[in-house]
Amino acid sequence: MTTLIYDGSFEGLMTAIFEIFEYQFRDAEICSQENYKVENIFATVHEVQTQVEKSERVLKKLEQNLGKSAVSQLLMVFLSEDPQLENLIVSAVKYSVSRPNQNVLNDFAHSEMMQIAKVCKSVSREVHRMNAFVRFEKLQDDFYFAKVEPDFNVLPLIFKHFKARYQDQKWMIFDLKRHYGIFSDRENADFFYPNEWDQNKFIKTQNLLHEDELKYQKLWQRYFFKTNIPERKNIKLHVKSLPKRYWKYLTEKY
After folding, report:
1. Is the pTM of the predicted complex or chain greater than 0.70?
2. Distance between CA atoms of 147 and 137, rounded to whole angstroms?
């Protein structure tokens, strides 16, 4: 058994997959540095150094065999943070090699391909909810700021949507679970990784809110209260459409 240890990045994973074939490892597993635990003292450890060239060669081959949409699905699996994500992706790659020019991800009779489909469905649902339920608050520096705690690491998947939708505004979305965010200042858009002090600042933003924001929040809460009809309240349907885990960041639920 050979255990390939990579840095936890998608490019690192693609590099590890390349090296499985490059060094002809017959019995191999891939594990990130963060999750690696010495469980088999007889296993050979192979440390992977991320190489963009190797990563791109794997992705190019996958696009040829599976198509771009299938590669996007594998990225979803990676961002799902599923404990078996490396095994699922390696299984898909090996299966695609045995059946070139076929999208093997559609073979739902294959247990790993079926699991990939389930993971992608869950991640896609979370992306849809993030696009719908993210709530921005205007800060004193005129940035619009939103806190999120998605079940999966979906910021890379929602980045394009928000960049296109809010081109004329300065905004930030910060993932409280994973301690990084995405931003746009109208001229540039990118990911950001704040230090520990700034992370605490992003968690508690009440003192940073613009005075206009405070007024709008009160106005919206009043409107929501006045238009609510208690006799027509259907909590079960409401929770089904808007799960409770999103409520704490919705102005009308404060």
Report:
1. yes
2. 9
